Amino acid sequence: xxxxxxxxxxxxxxxxxxxxxxxxxxxxxxxxxxxxxxxxxxxxxxxxxxxxxxxxxxxxxxxxxxxxxxxxxxxxxxxxxxxxxxxxxxxxxxxxxxxxxxxxxxxxxxxxxxxxxxxxxxxxxxxxxxxxxxxxxxxxxxxxxxxxxxxxxxxxxxxxxxxxxxxxxxxxxxxxxxxxxxxxxxxxxxxxxxxxxxxxxxxxxxxxxxxxxxxxxxxxxxxxxxxxxxxxxxxxxxxxxxxxxxxxxxxxxxxxxxxxxxxxxxxxxxxxxxxxxxxxxxxxxxxxxxxxxxxxxxxxxxxxxxxxxxxxxxxxxxxxxxxxxxxxxxxxxxxxxxxxxxxxxxxxx
Length: 349
Fold this sequence. Notes:
The protein is α+β, with helices and mostly antiparallel strands. The protein has two domains: 2-231, P-loop containing nucleotide triphosphate hydrolases (Rossmann fold), CATH 3.40.50; 237-341, CATH 2.40.50.100. The chain has nine helices and 18 strands. A six-stranded mixed beta sheet has the order 6-7-8-3-9-10, with helices on both faces. The chain has a five-stranded antiparallel beta sheet with strand order 13-17-14-15-16. Helix 2 packs parallel to helix 4 and helix 3 (108-121) packs across helix 4. The two termini are 33 Å apart.
């Protein structure tokens, strides 16, 4: 039981054509670059956009087939947490949570009892009479989640649920959200652009690009075998393309990379930035791959430094701040990147 969706939908310049499944008690995160169709997908499942063709099925009920069947949003067993939460500013927290129940004909007293219980569950029992303007971003997010859960949905849709939070609040709210999602035994579909959110909250990841699913799997699967430049950047690895010839891969730039057991035919090559040693002079020793280039940019992230190298084999290497100081690197500096052949992963394209 769960969600099964085959969706074909054209919206402006976007052609959405995807197949998606999500099971009970599973959180599926949909990631993709801007304009990939993530929010359009969520709106189609929620019933805010009718599909052109295909079929959206929740459990054994068809809720949209692009032709004869279209269940309106208010009749779908779906709860939605919007990116900006969309709480009613003139209603307090308990009335916001009770809104969906009241709109379904539940009397005020009964709806408020359910709302009060949910606010207690998300740790906001004492704020039940607070207006949205009186709540922090994390508290508003929890009210929005409680409102989505109040109707006892089979499917919970979350559209960038942490995007409105500042950096200091995000980690704590992410932990809270993870706990609340685990307590919900229905289907959970999360749209995000943040790989940390996906890693912390999702059981499975779907990568959407140009309206199509290009890869699905766990974060570990995608880190090991990314299928697109976006996926590689998302998980922080170098992705190169070429043709494998048993023990090496000839890249599209013409350069050769030594890779044991590379196979034959079109191939993708993955190199982790931490597997790349950066030198100011050609290195001695045993690395099978020594690649020359120039420093294009340097990015600092806490205790790590990412060095972007241009040349026949464009790479991003990751080094320590101490190594950056010792190497005296700056933009335009010539460098040599050394990579052990055993640290390179090649697989069919």
